[in-house]
């Protein structure tokens, strides 16, 4: 139900009444006995963050090159280019994922290396051990 605001003509008290649209009155009786008139205020419109448009002079879409001057154009441009709205924290999420993926890849490489060495014929493995002991270094290079 909507909230209707009233202001008393006699005592200047302001108060709200929550009632249905069909039941509201332009004038109600105040506690002091005076007449309180309905106060008309502009409705507060809450726009979700993804619907806000903060570029009054417009901007050039980095995806399509189109000039975007309102939210409808921006939504269409994002949809057409397969992009999503940037939100704070996204960059950090991507950076964190890259680090996690790198760690997972390093572990997979290490596991494969260990498995291949374990599967080597004993003679070959012993020769590798000697070479490693003599200072040969094995380095993983990602291409
Ligand atoms: Zn009053």
Topology diagram in text:
Layout lengths: L2 E6 L5 E5 L8 E3 L5 E5 L19 E2 L6 E2 L2 H11 L8 H30 L2 H12 L10
Antiparallel strand pairs: 1-2, 1-4, 3-4, 5-6
This protein binds zinc ion (ZN).
**Alpha-carbon Rg, integer:** 35 Å
Query: What share of the residues lie within helices?
Result: 25-40%
Structural class comes to alpha+beta
Shape: elongated
Bound heterogens, unique: zinc ion
Average pLDDT taken over every residue: 87
Question: What's the β-strand tally?
Answer: 6
Total helices: the number is: 3
Which percent range describes the beta-strand content? 15-25%
Q: Count up the domains.
A: 3
Write a compact overview of the structure shown.
By secondary structure, this protein is α+β, with helices and mostly antiparallel strands. It has three helices and six strands.
Describe this structure in words.
- The protein has 143 residues and is of the alpha+beta class.
- The protein folds into three domains: 3-39, no CATH class; 49-81, no CATH class; 90-133.
- Helices cover 37% and strands 16% of the residues.
- It has helices spanning 71-81, 90-119, 122-133; strands at residues 3-8, 14-18, 27-29, 35-39, 59-60, 67-68.
- β1 and β2 (14-18) form a beta hairpin.
- It starts with a strand and ends in a 10-residue tail after the last helix.
Top keywords for this entry?
single chain; 143 residues; alpha+beta; 3 domains; four-stranded antiparallel β-sheet; two-stranded antiparallel ribbon; 3 helices; 6 strands; 37% helix; binds zinc ion
